[in-house]
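Repro:
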Amino acid sequence: MDVGVDVGTTVTKAVVFDDDGRPLAEASRPTRLVRPAIGRFEHETAEIVASVNEVVGELAASHFPSSSRGGTVGDRPGVLAITAQGDGLWLVDPDGTAVRPAISWLDARSSAILERWTSDGVADRVFRRSGNRMFPGASGPLLAAVLAEEPEVIARAGTAAYCKDVVMQQLTGVRATDVSDASAPFLDPRTQQYDDEALEATGLSELQHLLAPVEPAGPVGELRDDSTGMAAGTRVSAGPYDLPAAAAGAGVDQPGDALLTVGTTLACQVVTRELPVDGEPAGLFLGTWTPGVWLRAMPAMVGTAALDRVLALVGLGTDRLPGLLAESRSARKASPCSRTCPKPANARRSWTPGRAARSTGSRCPRRRPTWSVRPAKGSRTPLATVWTRLGGPAGSRSAAEVPAAASGPRSSRTC
C-alpha cells in the first residue's frame, strides 16, 4: 500500500491506496491562510508541516499500526508520495526551517515589480528563455520583492523553495525540487537547468544559490524519524506539484491529451512536444518527467468563481456538486468518446482543433463537430449541456432542467 499527500491552499489531504491503486481511506486537515495586509497572503510553514504529520499519522494508526514500531515489511507503506500547491515563495534556512512565513501563490506584493519588468521587456525576455509568463505569485517576482523589503531575511535563507519541497526537506533532509515547480520562471525547458540569462534579466543572478537542485524524476528520500507515525526509513517521493500531478493521475500523458481542472484555479493543460516561445508571452510550459514533453498550461484564478457562475446559471447550490460529479462519472461509462453528438436544432457548426481531450479513457480518432448553442427564449437547457463545459462527459443526464434566457451565455456540447 502507498500513501499520497496533497498540501493545498485551504486543506491538506492524505489517501491510502491499495496495490491496485484503489483508495482505501483518507484524512484531511484545514490549512490556515493568513492575510497580514491587503493583497498579501501567507502560510505558517510549521503549521503546514504539522498538517502533513497529522493526516499521515491518522492513516498510519489505522492502516500501518506496526510501522512506527519497526513492524514487518507487510505493515509498512510502499511509498509516501507528496504533492502540493505550486508557485509562491517558501524561504527556509539550510536545515529547512522557515526564516519567514511562506508567501502564497495568491500574493500580490510583487505587482509593481512585475509591471516594471513587463514595461521594460524583462518579462518578455524571461518567457523566451523559460516559456513561462510570470505573475505576481510566481517565485521570481516574489523573490525580488522580499529582497527589496526584507534583505536581512534573504541573507538568512538557504533555499527559495516550493511547498512540497519544504515538506520533503523537513521529513527526509533532502534539499531538491522537480522540473514542474522549477519551471516557473527560471528553468530552461530544453536543458532542465536554471537559465543564467533569465536570472540576469531579473537582476537575481546573485541569488541563484537559493534555487534548489533539480531532480528530473523528482526528489526521493527516506523518513528520518517517525514524526508522521510511519517508521523511519519509509521511502518518500516529492512528485510534481498539483497541476501536473493531476494531469498524470488522469492519464493525460500523450501529445494532444488535455485536462481541465476547476478548483481554486481554473486550469487547462495540454501535453505537447512543441515549445513555441517566440509568440506572445502567455501561460506556462511546465516540465514533465519525460524529456522533450511539456504541459502547456493556461491557469486563471477564477476556478471557483466560474463554478459559482455556472451553478447560479442553472439555479443550483454547491451542495449539489457531489451528486453531479457522481452522475457525471456514471454517465462517462455509458458515453464512449467515439459516439457522434447529434446536431441540436438551434446550433451552428464550428471547428474543433486538434485531438480531443480524453474524457472516457479512449482517444477520439478524428476531429469532431462542436455545436455552439444559443438557447431560444423560454427554452429549457439540459444541465448536462452546461456541465459539459466544466469537463463533464457528453451524455451526462440530469432530471434538473432550467429556463435559459435568450441573452444567456453560449454553451458547447462535444464528444
